Amino acid sequence: KMDDDGDIPQLSSHTLAALQEFYLEQQQREGMKTSQGFNQYSIGSIEEDWQLSQFWYSDETALCLAKEAVLAAGKGGRIACISAPSVYQKLKEQNGEDFSVCILEYDRRFSVYGEEFIFYDYNYPLDLPENLLPHSFDIVIADPPYLSEECLQKTAETIKYLTKGKILLCTGAVMEEQAAKLLGVKMCKFIPKHSRNLANEFRCYVNYASGLD
Question: Which of 11, 95, 125, 136 lies in the 20 to 30 Å Cα band around 35?
């Protein structure tokens, strides 16, 4: 009998309705955000996409890292955030006139931030726009999306290309040796927290005298 497609699971009308309601709510939430002129830079204004291995920092952590970046960059400094959008958002909230910042990110939802957004795929570490000159950033903050040697290695190429010297790396504790080898960074005492708990122990690493110890 042809019409007996038992192997194709059918969603019950109830499930379908629930699903549609969920999507509708999501659209309304997104729509509300834009119409209310909500703070587009607040953490969570763009929701985490776990498929992209995204985990936002807690508010306190993002603020702490943003403040550290501003201090490290100095007056009129340039800051690059690689795959660390929650730090970028906190930097923008600072309304600091005396530093500039750009965000290198794979997730194109962040293109709402206009010219400061640079599409970035760590698989092509030096595939960067021409106006991103080598060694043109006072500090580079990076949070490689995956805990793998390959991901850190490739992100490290980008970091070294962009920074004048200072590096603030956020990644798992298991990457300590690799990070030291690739970037000459040391683990700080400061322990970054995420808005949701991660399974892996997460740490910060720097290659300069920072306020994170």
Answer: 95
